[in-house]
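Exam prep: given the inputs below (a chain plus NAP), describe the expected output before reading on.
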Amino acid sequence: MLLEMKRALITGANRGIGLALAEALVNRGVFVFAGARKPDNASELDRLREHHRGLIEIIPLEVTSDESVRRCADTVKGVSGTLDILVNNAAVFLEETNTGLAALDLDWFAETVAVNVGGVARVTRALLPLLGAAEQPCIVNISSGAGSIGDKTDHHYYCYGASKAALNHFTVGLAHELRPGGIVVVALSPGWVRTDMGGPGGELTPEESASAIADTILKLEPADSGCFLDRLGRKGKYVW
Ligand SMILES: NC(=O)c1ccc[n+]([C@@H]2O[C@H](COP(=O)([O-])OP(=O)(O)OC[C@H]3O[C@@H](n4cnc5c(N)ncnc54)[C@H](OP(=O)(O)O)[C@@H]3O)[C@@H](O)[C@H]2O)c1
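Solution:
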């Protein structure tokens, strides 16, 4: 059965949008490799796997670790040989308040960029050979409106915003590099979602956001590569 299915790897799939996206993709007939940095502590993901037996494989994945990422790629290779969809979803948001410059912990820059940009680059590089072996592969970098420079009107979230702006830059560069090989690369904002990161005031449930994202992923085409999409796949809703 796996041979006939599309296969996706989602980083940070143990909670929040990543967990909901795992379910949304499985419900659309996609086999999901679900990355979790602490799989022993991923009870909701365990329940999802039990519910969809044989359709979800949980893989230990710490995106800042070369060793962990290499093992993850080896596991995907061993199970399926190719990968159709890579969703770089894992991220950190260390500024819980709208910290101004004076109170900012400058170490947050390094830590945030290491996960939100370096982690994406590390995972993507390790999975590229498997993506290159798929028929219509795509890489979806989960970005944020907070990464937009054109829409920036406040002083909030220096580290997180800078990391997502850098991720957007990386996305466009990668889209150029991988276009000749037919790999579509997009930045996609999920909207404001009620997760640990988004908080209780978010406009969307993780399921609402993930359902739209899953539909968008399955409709991606070459003309989308290098674009900044919203969850519904619309271009121009977010400016760079
Ligand atoms: N929620 C929103 O409103 C919103 C808005 C715009 C964009 N986004 C983006 O959407 C994506 C998902 O956000 P979310 O709201 O679902 O966040 P979340 O609930 O905080 O979940 C973050 C996920 O990333 C994982 N993660 C963090 N650091 C990691 C690392 N070093 N290695 C591997 N996994 C790591 C976490 O794992 P642990 O459980 O082990 O910590 C968790 O699974 C992120 O890229 C975020 O920037 C969210």
